[in-house]
């Protein structure tokens, strides 16, 4: 090409006319550019790392609990020298944060806004609020979709206008539509739904659980925990049946092992085996009254010489009254007839006697209260055993 040949000739001409100092400067610039390109390629090729929390975890106990929970979930992470947890990428960090928020393992010094990495914009107040709402909505969707049970999430947050008086202020509301993954039990698992509800609360200041609605694509409200009481009962029944089946399998294995020393396995059958388990939760409250040891037993004597009392006096109140003779019955002014009826006048000279004794004593007794919960309890076990044999008549 002609332009390339002209450019080459111009560079050669300039190079010939340059002094040694200019040549050294030109070569230095070329070397710096090459080194910069190499470093840029190396940095871009290195794996991207993301922090689970933007702050260091200062409490060693919190760090141990978080590390243990991440180990249970199978996360690959690194704890830096300043106690920061770093994972492979941002998607893994979002999933780890979602699990830790659901399990209430977020360190106290961590700002809930930092969990969602909300950026600040230096724009007008209106634009900043709009961008903040968009960032919150998108970050919430990413955090919820990072859960293993959620395939897709759609989040809508309604921020009402600020009112002058607090009683006129409308509450913030949030609605979430989830698309569960095939085989997920998020519709029946209350703990997972509560975890998503906590994620939304952490993201939005002033949002209460009563103003959060979580549904699936069919319109079924997942965070209606009062309506989940029927599902909870079904789940409890399923676990009770699993416990009963496990106990029956254990009893069947024990019986077969016990007769295996006398008979071969093909000669023994268990046509019926049933285990009854009382799954009802019983609360037993017991109140015992036992005597007080006033004088302990002397270990040097061959008999028990301790002195026991059922109770000891705590306080005593006594009242005694006594009266003898008649009382004074005044008449009217001198020269005037009194107002006392004749029937009572006849009793004026009668000698009387009155005595009253009252005693109140408060006693202290030794009491012991025991409250325990019993559940479950093994009840009757029924087993039918069939053994193959040959009878001989002698």
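Q: What amino acid sequence fits the structure above?
A:
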């Amino acid at each position: 090409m002609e332009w390339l040949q002209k450019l080459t000739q111009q560079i050669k001409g300039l190079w010939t006319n340059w002094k040694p100092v200019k040549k050294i400067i030109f070569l230095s610039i070329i070397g710096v550019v090459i080194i910069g390109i190499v470093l840029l390629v190396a940095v871009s090729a290195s794996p991207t790392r993301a922090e689970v929390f933007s702050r260091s975890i200062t409490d060693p106990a919190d760090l141990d609990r978080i590390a243990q929970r991440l180990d249970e979930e199978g996360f690959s992470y690194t704890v830096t020298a300043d106690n920061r947890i770093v994972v492979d990428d941002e998607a893994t960090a979002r999933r780890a944060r979602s699990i830790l928020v659901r399990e209430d393992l977020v360190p106290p010094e961590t700002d809930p806004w930092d969990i969602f990495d909300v950026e600040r914009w230096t724009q007008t107040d209106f634009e900043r609020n709009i961008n903040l709402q968009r960032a919150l909505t998108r970050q919430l969707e990413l955090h919820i979709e990072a859960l293993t049970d959620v395939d897709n999430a759609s989040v809508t947050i309604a921020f009402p206008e600020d009112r002058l008086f607090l009683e006129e202020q409308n509450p913030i509301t949030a609605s979430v539509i989830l698309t569960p993954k095939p085989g997920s039990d998020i519709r029946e698992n209350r703990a997972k739904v509560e975890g998503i509800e906590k994620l939304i609360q952490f993201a939005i200041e002033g949002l209460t659980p009563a103003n959060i609605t979580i549904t699936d694509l069919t319109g079924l409200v997942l965070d209606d925990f009062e309506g989940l009481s029927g599902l909870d009962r079904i789940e409890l029944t399923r676990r009770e049946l699993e416990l009963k089946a496990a106990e029956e399998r254990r009893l069947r294995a024990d019986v077969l092992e016990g007769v295996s020393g006398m008979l071969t396995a093909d000669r023994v059958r268990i046509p019926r085996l049933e285990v009854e388990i009382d799954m009802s939760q019983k609360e037993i409250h017991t109140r015992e009254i036992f005597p007080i040891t006033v004088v302990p037993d002397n270990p040097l004597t061959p008999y028990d010489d301790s002195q026991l009392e059922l109770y000891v006096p705590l306080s005593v109140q006594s009242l005694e009254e006594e009266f003898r003779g008649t009382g004074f019955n005044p008449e009217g002014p001198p020269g005037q007839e009194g107002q006392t009826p004749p029937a009572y006048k006849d009793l004026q000279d009668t000698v009387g006697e009155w005595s009253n004794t009252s005693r109140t004593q408060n006693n202290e007794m030794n009491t012991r209260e025991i409250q325990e919960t019993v559940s479950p309890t093994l009840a009757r076990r029924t087993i039918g055993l069939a053994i193959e044999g040959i009878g001989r008549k002698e």
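Q: And what stands out in the fold?
A: The chain has a mean pLDDT of 79.
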